[in-house]
């Protein structure tokens, strides 16, 4: 118990959101409806937006703790195993017996690594407000939330603001309650579909960034897949191209980007350097199948970036 308490004291980043098991199959072409296609291979590993961002931070040397909801089924056991292997503190994980845990099947286009996701949140109940107590990590500086369990992440964000923490949000899908949460978010990293949902169809990324920033965030980033990312901090508009790699699978690329961006925040880097670093870490991930297998160490990132590595 004392060892667990010591470990919690060293946690710098708390994540609240989803962890799941991913079944990933590569195929040469998608069948038409009612058709059939043979998979080239299949891989099983863990994923989930907030939890994969924490795994990224852990591999970069940052201590993290996770709040999530799973059951005691074989999927839940695999999720816990994956988090422990990457030294994520699981004190905040709620395990409710007798349900099913979240999982996804991901079809990967073998030609260019693009993926199509079929996911199921499981039957396990979502985290509720009463399940959140950020106080178990007394020295944490940053809260990172995804956009799935709105009640729980709302409570987490409120507690984080009371504790003077920086709040980072992975905005993947616009759900009821998310606009209210955005008013308390310091750094918003949104997917392109989310930006369209919130800002409407737009002609320029700068318009969407300003629309998202109007909710109150200090920094806003929109990730654009192979087109890179764009960001707005104060009045500085930043464009970051994606690194050119032979992509095998883009699953989890955005989640890894978020974790790497948070690493830059911890280091005190300006937005442009955070974006450049996050883009590099995400690109390296895409050279391996699955959300987590390709996540690099800090030394690997330094070798990949060379003179581009932020100082």
Number of strands: 13
Model regions low in confidence, pLDDT < 50 over at least 5 residues? none
- In angstroms, what separates the terminal alpha carbons? 39 Å
* Count of helical regions: 10
The best one-word shape is globular
Oligomer: single chain
Q: Output the strand order for the largest sheet.
A: 5-4-1-8-9-10-11-12-13
By CATH reckoning, the class would read Alpha Beta
Radius of gyration: 18 Å
Largest sheet: 9 strands, mixed
How many distinct domains?
1
Helix proportion: 25-40%
What is the architecture at the second tier of CATH? 3-Layer(aba) Sandwich
Tell me the structural class.
alpha/beta
SSE order, one letter for each helix or strand: HEEEHEHEEEEHEHEHHEEEHHH
Note the beta-strand portion: 15-25%
């Amino acid at each position: 118990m004392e060892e667990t308490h010591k470990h919690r004291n060293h946690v710098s980043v708390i994540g609240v959101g989803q962890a799941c098991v991913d079944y990933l199959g590569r195929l040469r072409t998608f069948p038409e409806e009612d058709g059939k296609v043979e998979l080239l291979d299949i891989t099983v590993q863990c994923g989930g937006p907030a939890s994969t961002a924490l795994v990224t931070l852990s591999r970069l040397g940052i201590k993290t703790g996770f709040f999530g909801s799973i059951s005691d089924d074989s999927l839940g056991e695999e999720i816990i195993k994956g988090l422990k292997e990457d030294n994520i503190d699981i004190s905040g994980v709620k395990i409710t017996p007798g349900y099913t845990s979240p999982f996804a099947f991901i079809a990967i286009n073998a030609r260019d690594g693009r993926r199509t996701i079929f996911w199921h949140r499981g039957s396990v109940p979502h985290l509720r407000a009463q399940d959140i107590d950020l106080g178990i990590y007394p020295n944490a500086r940053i809260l990172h939330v995804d956009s799935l369990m709105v009640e729980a992440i709302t409570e987490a964000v409120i507690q984080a603001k009371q504790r003077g923490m920086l709040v980072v949000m992975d905005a993947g899908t616009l759900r009821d309650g998310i606009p209210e949460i955005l008013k308390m978010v310091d750094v918003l990293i949104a997917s392109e579909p989310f930006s369209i949902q919130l800002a409407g169809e737009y002609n320029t990324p700068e318009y969407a960034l300003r629309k998202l920033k109007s909710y109150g965030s200090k920094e806003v980033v929109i990730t654009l897949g192979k087109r890179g990312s764009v960001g707005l901090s104060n009045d500085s508009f930043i464009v970051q191209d994606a690194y050119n790699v032979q992509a095998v699978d883009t699953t989890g690329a955005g989640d890894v980007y978020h974790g790497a961006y948070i690493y830059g925040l911890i280091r005190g880097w300006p937005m442009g350097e955070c974006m450049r670093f996050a883009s590099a870490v995400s690109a390296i991930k895409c050279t391996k199948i699955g959300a987590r297998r390709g996540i690099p160490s800090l030394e690997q990132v330094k070798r990949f970036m060379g003179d581009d590595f932020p100082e």
